[in-house]
Amino acid sequence: MSLPNASIKVTHFIIGGFDKVKRPIAVGVVMLITYLLAVIANVLNILFIIFDKRLHKPMYILICNLAVVDILYCCSTTPTMIGVLLAGVNTISYVECFIQMSVFHLVGVMELFALAIMAFDRLIAFSFPFQYHSYLTNTRTLVVTYILWVVASGFVAVMPVTAATLPYCTSRMKYAFCDYAAVIRTTCVDPNYYFNLVSVMMFFLLFFTFSFIGLSYFVIAFLMKFSSNRDKKKMASTCVSHLIVVTCYYSPLFVLIVFTRVERQGLLIGTILAPSLVNPFVYCLRTKEIKSKIFKIFRKVNTAVFPFFFFFFF
Questions:
Q1: pLDDT tens, 221-239?
Q2: What is the SS3 string spanning the chain?
Q3: What domains lie within the chain, and their CATH numbers?
């Protein structure tokens, strides 16, 4: 362990996570395309929900919240990685690094909370179908969502507070962007205490949210046994979208936890880009109201554009 008196004043960090990438341009282009698709798809999802009053319901408010989380998730780190790969800009200021670290971990925790509250929404809908709209109103949904953002901020505040007080021995990071592990490894202290602190917190959050989601679907599956075939199909249809999103987000996380020697950097990037890209398409294609809205827009575009092209070419 380095001595504290050997510390240096860090104004910028050097990002070295892509130094061994053989084809940085190709990787950067793939990440850029994925990033743009994810942002555009999530923005469209939000706009569909905002401008269609028929979608101003608790479930769609939660879908909108998830889209906001996904936008912030990929925007917090991906531009930095794209800049390193395509433009060769491998430095980031101290303040920007801490902002990136805070936002990245905040939306990471909020992704867990967002998926858990969406499972709770489905649980209420199937357990109390006639009282659903009185139990879970738009106002209550917004209040609960706001509280979850505050709670997530409280958990994440531990990271920048602890990292900012430590002495630094190097400005070079071995990771692709600024997360807590990357920053702590540039300090002069033994990182194990800080890693254990955050690991306990993250294990609690992962265990609690995943257990809650699993328990919710266990109750839903139990209720399906006493439902008619028509109700079973309806219940299964509304739950499939959420289960796909949950699987897409939790799978790389559990792989990262269980197999600690696998490529950590690649899995982290996967947990950022994959859910952010998959989630809006899943809800667009699996949700009847949003899908019908998209089809109506395409029909209007085709009706307006096709005569123009026919006149121009013929």
A1: 888 777 767 766 766 777 8
A2: CCCHHHCECCCEEEECCCCCCCCHHHHHHHHHHHHHHHHHHHHHHHHHHHHCHHHCCHHHHHHHHHHHHHHHHHHHHHHHHHHHHHHCCCEEEHHHHHHHHHHHHHHHHHHHHHHHHHHHHHHHHHHCCCCHHHHCCHHHHHHHHHHHHHHHHHHHCHHHHHHHCCCECCCEECCCCCCHHHHHCCECCCCHHHHHHHHHHHHHHHHHHHHHHHHHHHHHHHHHCCCCHHHHHHHHHHHHHHHHHHHHHHHHHHHHHHCCCCCHHHHHHHHHHHHHHHHHHHHHHHCHHHHHHHHHHHHHHHHHHHHHHHHHHC
A3: 12-293 (1.20.1070.10)
